Fold:
Amino acid sequence: MAQDAARIQPGTPLVAWLHLVTRRTAIDAIRRESRRRPRKQAASEIAAMKPPSADWSRIEPLLDEALQTLDEPERCALLLRYF
Structure:
């Protein structure tokens, strides 16, 4: 709010300005929280997944090796899609 104080026009009621700035700040906080909540939920669901199976332990090094043979754009596309 201190940064916005320089923009107060002379004669503007301070109470009205404080109300407006506080309202906008609260709206921004609500929007941030609404974007953060789904990400936090997804992260907790991933963390709750059961540990990798023995099959995955055998396949993972092969996948890593195969991914390294791809060009950067193809590797990025696969990683973005599946991981």
